[in-house]
Amino acid sequence: MRNSITKSTITVTILSVLSYLFGFLAQILTAHYFGTSEGVDTFVLTSVIPFFIYGMTMAIFMNAFLYIYTEHKNKHKEEDNKKIISAVFTTLLITLIVITIIILLAAPIIAKLLVLNKQQYDLKIITRMIRILAIGAFLFGMISFSTGLLYTEKKFFSPMLLRICIGTTTIIGILLARDILGIYVLPIAFVGGLFIATIVQYADLLYFGFRMHLSKEMFNSECRHILLLSIPILGSSFLYYLIQYIMNILATSFDPGSVASLHYAYVISSFPVILIGGSFATILLPSMTDYFVKQEIEQFEKFLETATLYIIYIMLPLSVVVVFFGQEITTIIYGGGMFTNDASITVAGILSIYGSGLVFSALQQVFMNTLYAMKKMKEHFFIMIIYTATIFLLSTLFIKFLGLRGLALAYVFGTVIAVGVTLYVLFKNGINIKINYMAPYITKIFCVMILLSIIFYELKTLFLQNLTGIYLFCGLVGTIVLGFLLYYMTTSFLGIKEGKAILNIIKQYFTKENF
Known about the structure:
By secondary structure, the chain is an all-alpha fold. The protein has 18 helices and no strands.
């Protein structure tokens, strides 16, 4: 069972790497050419709007619509299926047009709501970016619909091109048009990538036989049913973006560039979380849903325990790396150009705090998907309320003493509390993760972490203090590789089998039979 989980996760991880790599490269170029400027702050603040629309529409089409349309397709004729697609398409199109017009007209008002320190930000620039990104919000909504339809046919290729399209247009835009468009190259390139992704996905729909037509049956019973089922998920999605909005707003109380600094640190810290936690969450959802439906609770619990142990094993050393080498990682990834040494120090401080919570962030993704597998949407929404309230209250407290680092610390504490509450909810619903069984394992891992931390500290002090450029990169890579070898050897000596299992599965995965 462990082998199958890890092997599937490796496959999803490889695909995710290809998808997120372009976005990461775009972030690096943004940092190099625009640094932590007011313009980057403005783009980060205003980009919440299209991502909010994307999150809300994806919540509908990847959950309620996916379920209802799949059920409808298995019970009705092809002509009836075309009608429901056209009705949903028409409803979505009209709704998105109305929302886009509202954003365009209300842009000056929205701009004032996005910043606390209005004297330090140009509201006209914010307003223009909001209007550019309103088009992105429309395209994101259309992409959510096409993604939902393609997933019903288990077609994943064109949906996975989304981030690649956005990253590619951003990279090209920055390299070729930054002197002409200035900071506006970021929202324009962003919308351009969305436009290309939309064309690709709808061409894919046509290729697979989907035909969308305007329908007089918009807002029909199926549309209302889809929306009704989506309400708890929409609530959870809303709170997720509300957290981002709150943290960005609070960051605007500091000097311009603070929002960008918080964003750059979060991008680095979220990368391993998305790859590891997100991959496990994606792989586990179908199997755990099946086990829960069949009431095979013992298998359900074993799956969850296995995923938890693997995540702890993989994410703890990564967390130590980010905490100890935040400065070096930030300098290597973002350093140079407009990204100054002061900016590097600021981002590194925030990154180190984010890094301390990597394990819990990855576990949260798996545990939240576990609730989806159990169809506990209301419980998920309840946890998100606690999560949001905790981060908000702690942010307003910590920011007074720690500044931007306080926002990151509040986020970490909020994640830890959310994981704890989720475990309690699972227990109350009959899912008992055997903490007693995992306690010796976790204790051994933490002992190894203390040893690894000491080793990293000494190596950093001895070898990395005065290195720059390629020497810093090689020194950091060498230090991390050495640390991970010691970590694997020590955990193997202590009888922790996850590392050996992972290496064996990677070896099996890259055999000829798999290609």
